[in-house]
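Quality-control log, excerpt.
Job 1 of 2 completed; input and output follow.
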Amino acid sequence: MALEHAILVSLLEQPGSGYELARRFERSIGRFWTATHQQIYRVLRRMETDGWVTAEEIGQDGRPDKRRYSVTTAGRETLTRWLREPVQPETVRHELAVKIRGAAYDDDAGRAALIVQVERYRADHVATLDRYLAGERRDFLDAAEIDAGQRLQHVVLRGGIAYERMVLDWLDDVLDTLRGLDR
């Protein structure tokens, strides 16, 4: 997937400025696709040149004007073509998993250092799960009141929640196994 597709989806959900898009990436889209502010602005300029989005200048009192982007017919057609393409399973590259396997060839000090790494990695996933759950409470409290687009956003979020819980279960198993090697 290209960043362009994530931006098109976000702008179809709600037109907005580059800054607003960056905030969406921080809050929700970033659950499955990350981008820096600079990347978003650079891609928006290219998408505007390609005719996929248009920008409307919005005046602001006491602040510079902002550009509010929306998707054009050409942008929608591009997204439609991409949506209909088959999805290939992602190739997984997991450095921590290789380190865990390699722990069999390290000494006790090396395994102790790996335990610290796994605990830190686990803490990051706990924080991510907490953010996802907070977002779910904030955005999807009343499931009966959400539209089709929001239901699809929610199912993606639920996938992220399930993934984080699975990773945490696995990391707990890893920690138990690593700690059991010292016995």
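Job 2 of 2 completed; input and output follow.
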Amino acid sequence: MEELGVYMVGYDRAGYGESDPNPYRSLRREALDVEELADALELGPKFFVIGFSLGGHSVWASLKYMPERLAGAALLAPVINYRWPGFPRNLSTEAYNSQPVGDQWTFRVTYYAPWLLNWWMNQPWLPSSSVVKGTASLPNKLDARLHVEMKSSEIVKEMKRLATQQGVHESLHRDMMVMFGKWEFDPMDLPPPNIPVHLWQGDEDGLVPVTVQRYICHRLMWIDYHELPSTGHFLTMVPGFGDTVLKTLLG
């Protein structure tokens, strides 16, 4: 960061930490929040955006609703919506069916009955998200080790408590409702934004099937796709990965 002169901002999105909850969250509002924050901090007419995992929908929204404000964008193992129309039916069905049954049910409830999600997620006898429950299958060795370490880490537990202090529904559940609900646009219909856009994906990601990321980047030829061999979902924990992202975007 010092070498490249980077000024980096991380913020709590609506409902997380001490940020005000927003019961009307949407993809457009996510992009407007980014733009409003950038203007309040006087970041200038253009800035870069980076989104990891579930936060990837904020980057897609920024590319859709304010491409003129972006100097570049990076998507790190971004979670996908299996119901994006641009996916071939056989590909999305295969990827969807590869997920645990509880996750499949969570996707269905979030898409068809989002008003039911909070109740559903709080019923221990119903099949629900393995990620939220902490039971997700992680085939990558580093992911599996980090998962065990994080479950027992007091620091991580405190970070989760602070992140969800306004309730899991106002933070994580509303994130899921935006990510897995009915989108206002299909990312695969986005026109070239005339800025550098990079997507990094591990080929052993147990949470986001690599097959769907390959297809997205095949459709959107303006995305520079970086597939990391023998790598899982927790890209930000791979030694040197942060440096790679910054140097690729700014170097």
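Post-run check on job 2. The two ends are 11 Å apart (CA to CA).
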